[in-house]
Design a protein that fits this description.
181 residues, alpha+beta, Immunoglobulin-like, seven-stranded antiparallel sheet, 1 helix, 13 strands, rod-shaped
């Protein structure tokens, strides 16, 4: 069959042709199987991402909800204060922090004048409105950004929400509404 290094296909018998045809069919089948395996691998990646997204959505939906019920500027001694009423619509223990900037000094502890970075609420109840006092540097309307982190026992991933409000306005999570000036 091979003469001088070249194949002389004109001299192949039926058995050789059948073997070559079988090899070509096997090659096409192997290529097709490889393509199907690659497509299946892509499908698995997509399905994993969908499962992760659904898990994150369920986690977010199971978390507590908050809304700012009131937000007013007042004076406490010499410094202006934003009194923010926060209503928790359910959920476990919550840590509240405020972002400090040039206009916001921090949170004021209950019953005192101490400025702190965060306050932990441990006695929450759905529907309860809690009062936060935010120390301000200036007596002007500023944005106050509150971060809520809720941690439930046995849950590895905390719920995190951020709300921005301006004294004398109201806001809700996901939607910030600025009150009239």
């Amino acid at each position: 069959m091979i003469g001088g290094g070249l194949m002389d296909i004109a001299k192949w018998d039926a058995g050789t042709w059948i073997a070559v045809a079988g090899a070509v069919i096997a090659l096409v089948a192997a290529w097709s199987a490889w393509r199907q395996a690659a497509a299946a691998k892509d499908q698995v990646v997509i399905m994993r991402q969908q499962l992760n997204n659904e898990t994150a959505d369920r986690h977010k939906a199971a978390g507590p909800n908050f809304e700012v019920a009131s937000s007013r500027s007042t004076r406490a001694g010499q410094k202006p204060v934003a009194d923010v009423g926060v209503k928790q619509v359910g959920g476990p223990r919550v840590t509240v922090t405020v972002k400090r900037d040039g206009d916001v000094r921090g949170l004021i502890e209950d019953g005192g004048d101490n400025i702190v970075d965060s306050i932990i609420w441990t006695d929450n109840a759905p529907g309860q409105v809690r009062s936060l006092k935010v120390g301000l540097e200036r007596d002007k309307r500023v944005n106050v950004v509150l971060d809520f982190v809720s941690v439930e026992k046995g849950n590895e991933e905390p719920w995190k929400c951020t709300v921005t409000t301006r004294p004398e306005g109201t806001a809700q999570f996901g939607v910030s509404t600025v009150g009239s000036p």
